[in-house]
Write a structure and sequence with these properties.
The protein has 175 residues and is of the alpha+beta class. Helix content is 14%, strand content 29%. The protein is elongated.
Length: 175
């Protein structure tokens, strides 16, 4: 009796998302219960393990788990290219009301802190304070502070710190 792997079509996004007889290949946001994740973490040589001839590295397995947990969105070629340097882009739009997007690139897996400060240097909102894998990142700020309250119009600073880098960008909230 054949396993579900024979019916999984891993050659395109739709095939990965629809699954096979063993269940959904990908359960968006839940890598532990996704068939794809379960198959790639089986020991080499066990029936149904994937890929059968060339096991994935722990980094590759973590990348797949992260992709599933972040919603398993369709990928573009840019998603496969690891940045060579840390970059923090200017938020956009800027000025903004009330939402703005912050993008940055991590060349290495590392701890990162991304905070919003007011003009006096007081921390208004901690957007990120965690270990992250290398790659392009994006977060959105909706002009809400850590207490869940709307902040007033004015100048704010985006402060990003990693193990080796500290950068700041000026942001303007107009209401």
């Amino acid at each position: 009796m054949g396993g579900g792997a024979a019916t999984l079509d891993l050659t395109n996004y739709n095939g990965v998302m629809t699954g096979g007889v063993s269940g959904l290949a990908v359960i968006s946001g839940d890598h532990q219960n996704s068939e794809l994740y379960n198959r790639i973490t089986l020991p080499e040589g066990v029936a149904g393990s994937m890929p059968p001839n060339d096991p994935l590295s722990p980094v590759e397995i973590n990348l797949i788990a992260e992709w599933i947990n972040e919603g398993a969105n369709d990928l573009s070629i840019e998603d496969y290219i690891s940045p060579q340097n840390f970059t923090l882009d200017q938020n956009y739009p800027n000025p903004f009301n009330p939402n703005t997007t912050i993008t940055y690139n991590l060349p290495d897996n590392q701890m990162i802190s991304l905070k919003i400060l007011d003009a006096s240097g007081k921390i208004i909102r901690t957007m990120v304070n965690e270990f992250q894998y290398s790659g392009s990142k994006r977060v959105q700020w909706n002009a809400i502070n850590d207490n869940g309250q709307k902040v007033s119009s004015g100048v704010y600073f985006l402060s990003v710190e990693t193990e080796n880098i500290r950068q700041t960008r000026k942001m303007i909230l107009l209401k």
